UniProtKB/TrEMBL annotation:
Cell compartment(s), UniProt: Cell membrane; Bacterial flagellum basal body
Protein's UniProt name: Flagellar biosynthetic protein FliR
Spans through the membrane: 12-32, 39-59, 65-88, 95-114, 126-151, 172-201, 213-235
NCBIfam families: fliR
Entry keyword annotation includes Membrane: yes
A biological process from GO: bacterial-type flagellum assembly
Record lineage: Bacteria, Pseudomonadati, Pseudomonadota, Alphaproteobacteria, Sphingomonadales
Stated family: Belongs to the FliR/MopE/SpaR family.
The organism of origin for this protein: Sphingomonas ginsenosidivorax
Amino acid sequence: MLGFGLAIEPQLWALIFVMIRVGAAFAAAPVFGAVGVPVTVRVTLAGAIGFLVLAAHPVTPPAQIFTVATMLAIAAEALVGAALGFVLQIGFAAPMVAAEMIGGSMGLGFASAIDPQNGKSSPALGQFFSVMLTLLFLSVDGHLMLVDMIVRSYDAMPVGNAWLGADRLRAIAYFGGYTFLAGLLLALPVGFLLLSLNIVVGMISRAAPALNLFAIGLPASLAVGVLALAIAFPAMGDYMLVIVRESLAATERLVFG
């Protein structure tokens, strides 16, 4: 117990213990873990969802706080919550990979700004993709699915038996490869067209070496890239939905095996 001798003390310790997994998931997950979301909001959401967990599952926290077993249980709860959010974060990294490929071919590799999701500098095109993926994630109720999986995770991984096994850790590592595959497929329509344009420009440079390719190639790549993005974005939006579903499915497999 906390050591205050109050009647509310066991319930308060149980709520704090439950909030560890929920808070770790929110800190690592996209949307909830964005820099623009205040810490107060995240703590309040974790407490509200903690009440739901306590109402749906009989959670029995460790009896003593300052013991090795309790510290290991807290570490296990934080590990499970961080893993749930991290798997979704892996899927959300796919648009950044696609933006690096497309932006480099279009000549927009130098255009970068502060990403509101993580507070770091990222390509401008990557921010556009990231915002679209976030909106699609919210449109299919991905945030509600994440909360539902966090609550149901106490059935599959109850308190005291929440360590991730080697198979689950291996699944997280394998899903990391999906980021590069999804980013490649997302950038494929526009990237292939820009690659074809670069081949044509290279052939022209061999046929007419006197031409200034910097004055011709860069505006052409930029114009063709913007036009290709406008044409291919409906298909790219459909594939972003696939990325969202695959990320949620990977999170569910992490919880239920």
